[in-house]
Amino acid sequence: MQTQLAEEFSGTSHGKAAQAILSRCVHCGFCTATCPTYQLLGDELDGPRGRIYLIKQVLEGAEPTRSTQLHLDRCLTCRNCESTCPSGVQYGQLLEIGRGIVEAKVERPAGERAVRWLLKEGLTSPAFAPAMRLGQLLRPLLPTTLQDKVPGKAPGSAHDWPRKQHPRKMGLLLGCVQPSMAPNINSATARVLDAAGIQTLVADGAGCCGAIRSHLNDQMGGLADMRRNIDAWWPLVAGLTEAGKIEALVMNASGCGVTVKDYGHALAHDPDYADKAAQISAITRDLSELLPDLVPLLLPQLGAQQQGTPREKLAYHPPCTLQHGQQLRGGVEQGLRALGFEVKLASCDSHLCCGSAGTYSVLQPQLSKQLRDQKLQALAPLHAQTIVSANIGCIQHLQSGTSTPVRHWVEVLADCLPGA
Length: 420
Description:
The protein is an alpha/beta fold. Helices cover 50% and strands 7% of the residues.
């Protein structure tokens, strides 16, 4: 796709990057077949190809409108289109550039600006934890829309953190909302790694990975979050602490994982952080990537139960940030099956987004719930005892639409360890 950049974008880093991405697009339209919003709305401008045209027009000098902004807002950033694209168009990066330009040129209504500010400042604030505890206490009194965002009280094991020291050490990002909404995911991760002879280390100064601010078009705020995390992790990466040197940074929320793996790209033009960011990205692993190494270490500890009662039937929803963003498919299912679990995926549309997509479920509730209900309908024929996923956003969003327990797969695995 040929693009003649307007003078204001010509020669800029964003303009050059966008032009390189646009040049790969051949207008084939394969992306529309796997775009959730296009399938729901049937509007070309609510599909990847249409949004690419909108961004191209803006880069060529067309004045963006409120309509342009709305079509870009409706994108889930699920990146399903990238998995489908035969030309390797990096749509996610192009969308980020386009949204940033449009955000600077089109003023949002005051109500939208307020909601977005509350999301990016509230979800990443230390005040989020006490606010969540208050919400859990008052949950029966809250409106249904708020109840959907407030999970029940965490189990007692949520704060059962192993204390053993091991020669092998890995870092873990606790996340911004996960410690308050689902703390058991982090402690279950630490217990599983401990059972495999790996000590989990946490850098106290690390917080939000940067995804929330970046996806809400606060690019500078997102980069600041990334730099803060790098500063917090670096002593562990370089082995400058008494605890020792970590061999990997583990992400048990795939939304955080896809962002941290992109630190090298996001900070490539920052001379103070480019090298460190590239090293952080290089050692970052989604928890599922460790399973081939963990299975033979965990299997002997699970052997007694494996020979007895079969483990619960699991339906697995692969998050978009795992299967499309990180291009990791099959690892969770293969690992759990090797450990004796019965795991099945929906027979249709397992590649489609559940509608959570970070803050999307708040900003686009109608579309988000439609996608959630479609996903649950696709999973229902599996008659699973538990639905498992690999991202806190997907887990909470799906749980709001079903009475079937929805958990992180590592929680289910941790429950089967001796002494659980």
